[in-house]
Design a protein that fits this description.
The chain is of the alpha+beta class. It has two domains: about 230 residues, Jelly Rolls (Sandwich); about 80 residues. About 25% of the residues lie in helices and about 25% in strands. The chain contains seven helices and eleven strands. Strands 1, 2, 3, 4, 5, 6, 7, 8, 9, 10 and 11 form an eleven-stranded mixed β-sheet that branches. Helix 1 links the parallel strand 2 and strand 3. Helix 4 packs antiparallel against helix 5 and helix 4 crosses helix 6. The longest helix has 19 residues. The chain is globular and about 65 Å long. The chain starts with 6 loop residues before the first strand and ends in a 13-residue tail after the last helix. Pfam families: Cupin_8 (PF13621).
Length: about 325
Amino acid sequence: MLTKIPIAIDEVTDIQPAAFKSQYVDGHRPLIIRGGVSHWPAMQWNSNEYLLKIAGDQRVKVDVFPLSKQGKILLESGSEEVMSIKDFTMKFFQEDCYHYISDQNLPPPLYQDLNEHCVSSVFPVERRRTFWWGKNGQKSFLHYDDNENFMCQFDGEKAFLLFDITDFDYLYPKDETEYRSLADLEQHDSNQFPLLAKATPYVARISPGDVLYVPCYWWHQVKSFGRNIAVSYIINESMEQRVRVTGKLIEAGALPVSDSIRDDLLNIIGLDETPSRRNALLKKYHREYQQQQGKSYYPHSIFHRLIEENLLDILYGHATY
């Protein structure tokens, strides 16, 4: 079980792009901007009548989850249906199952109600905007994402439990390719997941009009309260950020290598070179190791994602340089 006292995420009501970049993006730290989108037209999304008027005919993919006899949402048993937003609102309060619009590309008519927060100017490329509409009790798996995320809340509240990437080895990825954890933080066996006791939890709760910046590769689990609508601004992480995250993982001991190799890799990361050049040197070092030892020292695909993916991946919406 978690034993460390949770740390509250920093909160501001206003912040300039330069300060946001230096303190939070470069610091690889999450941040709540209270009221950051409270003046946007999307605050009208607390009304079904308004949403049906402008986007009721839009078709979306809906996750449908059965409920246990105790009313628990059975995440592992979900299916997917395509329906209009109008039909979704009619099924929203069904008692035998749970309907949830999650991580969908934002329906085009809803773009008119969004703006840009000034701090988003620090990022070079926005990948997409995703739409989330659920209700009380919805909970995500503990997982990490390979992108920067601005979660803009327009109705209901969301509670986040977050962990820095430096706790990677304590959070039980399902296997060497998974971005999700085996552990359910609300109900788990401490004997089954003893390393969770070493992890440092961070907490954030956002309300309508708030924005939460979740840095790339931070682990998080999310729980929703009330009728719940949000939009995520999904932003490609920069090569600078990828090198930074690689350094944090190596410093935390997430690579099973000797001290001399660890020092070599950290020296590369600390060079006064461009992020792309340092990334190229990390790739070269790994190739030479493979040639000499006949194996990789990457214990998980996150290292392949951070170090090995190249310019071609930009075309598929992954990395930016």
